[in-house]
Amino acid sequence: MTAVQGKMVKAGPGAARLHAAFDRAKAQGRAAFIPFMTAGFPSAADFLPLARTLLDRADIMEIGIPYSDPLGDGPTIQRASEQALAGGTSTRRTFELIRELRRTHDTPLVVMTYINPIYAVGPAEFMRLAREVGVDGLILPDLPPDQDLEIAALAEQHGLAVTFLIAPTSTPERVKLVAGACTGFLYAVSVTGVTGTREGAALGEVPRMLELARQHAQVPVAVGFGVKDAQTAAQVAQVADGVVVGSAFISAAQAGQDVGPLADQIAEGCRR
């Protein structure tokens, strides 16, 4: 159980599936590989084979709901969201695409969404739809746990795990609050700023941040932002339970490349 707004929140079946995926990866001597892809990118039809290619290699997959004002995302994912929205991919269409993925893959799935799409559908209806199509958890980048407004409680009622984010600038008090609110995994942002591929090492302040996070987290800790290849994945895998990669795959898909070889390389880099 974890504490959200002073209330104890019990982890449900979605959290259990996510934790089992992390445990399997750890038993095999590696960090969990968590690729990200924006739903409906580069088109609704092309998204499905692209996502399945990543799912074939993933321990957990993160699917982003296209949103017009994604403040935490860099230009690569912003453009992917714009393209998906222009192609007609809405929140409800995202759930339909996830339902199709569930026909072929049982890999745990988490949805990354800002709070506005949840309220546009209605929080209770959003959670119902998410669980109905096979979502295991939610990543909520713009919803501080101390301003949760019962979202985590609704997720719990539908068996969904919740994940919040910390950054290198997070204070010890903030890390404690966020870590205690997560039921899926804790998402540690490797750099201050938005998502996107960066030059150089991905670690930076990550080891110090993770040392602090693990003093409070009762869930696995995954690291994202700035991981783009096997080398940077290997660096992060030395200190994290999971490695999240998104912009690199979107850039490859935008260039018309097969994302499979890059996913194979990064998955191999997740080995310790």
3D structure, described in words:
- The chain has 272 residues and is of the alpha/beta class.
- It has a single domain (2-198, 206-256), classed as Aldolase class I (TIM Barrel), CATH 3.20.20.70.
- Helices cover 44% and strands 15% of the residues.
- It has twelve helices and eleven strands.
- It has helices spanning 13-27, 44-55, 75-86, 91-102, 115-121, 123-133, 151-157, 172-181, 206-213, 230-237, 247-254, 259-269, and strands spanning 2-4, 7-9, 32-38, 61-64, 109-112, 137-139, 161-163, 165-166, 186-189, 221-224, 242-245.
- The strands form two sheets. The protein has a nine-stranded parallel β-sheet.
- Helix 4 runs parallel beside helix 6 (123-133) and helix 10 (230-237) runs parallel beside helix 12 (259-269).
- It is globular and about 45 Å long.
- Residues 3-9 and 193-201 have low confidence and may be disordered.
Question: Which descriptors would you attach to this protein?
Answer:
TIM Barrel; 272 residues; 12 helices; tryptophan synthase activity; disordered N terminus; globular; 44% helix; alpha/beta; EC 4.2.1.20
Q: What's a quick, concise take on this entry?
A:
This protein is an alpha/beta fold and 272 residues long.
Provide the succession of SSEs. Answer: EEHEHEHHEHHEHEEHEHEHEHH
What class, by secondary structure content?
alpha/beta
CATH class: Alpha Beta
**Architecture, CATH level 2?**
Alpha-Beta Barrel
Mean pLDDT: 90
Q: What is the radius of gyration?
A: 17 Å
Q: How would you name the CATH homologous superfamily? A: Aldolase class I
Number of strands: 11
| Main beta-sheet annotation | 9 strands, parallel
What does the overall shape look like? globular
Strand order of the largest sheet: 7-6-5-4-3-11-10-9-8
Span between N and C termini?
30 Å
Percent helix range: 40-55%
What is the count of helical runs?
Answer: 12
Strand composition percent:
15-25%
CATH topology: TIM Barrel
Query: What's the structural domain tally?
Result: 1
Poorly predicted runs? 3-9, 193-201
